[in-house]
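Bumping with the actual sequence this time:
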Amino acid sequence: MTFYSALVVAVVFASGTFLLLQRDLTRVVVGIILVSNSAVLFIISAGLTRGAAPILPLEDGGASDPLVQAMALTALVIGFGVAALLLAMFYRLYTTHGTVDLEEIAATEMREAEALERMDDPEREEVPEEEQDPEDGLR
């Protein structure tokens, strides 16, 4: 049983890592969610122990570790929060740029930064305001 749970955790984690390395932002978000879920599965599988129960066992001989359940629940809540934040950021990025391809978004950001730099052309000589007014006679 432990081998199968370790195999499932490894496959889910590897799938999430593979998706994190893709160009498409949708796949990156799904990869982060899969990595988060593999952490929850790992915590749950770590609680699959044999031997004496960590708390007072029930009449039927079964017991479960409450610490593992609390940690898994905490990891699930944090994972859902991260997923909600990522999906909100994903939607905002898609509405502003019209694409989910990370290289296209980076190229668009570079073009916008270069356009802002061109607006502030450092080669153009700035003339102080008092020298521009010929009525002052300060020239």
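The tokens above came from a reply further down the thread. The chain has a mean pLDDT of 82.
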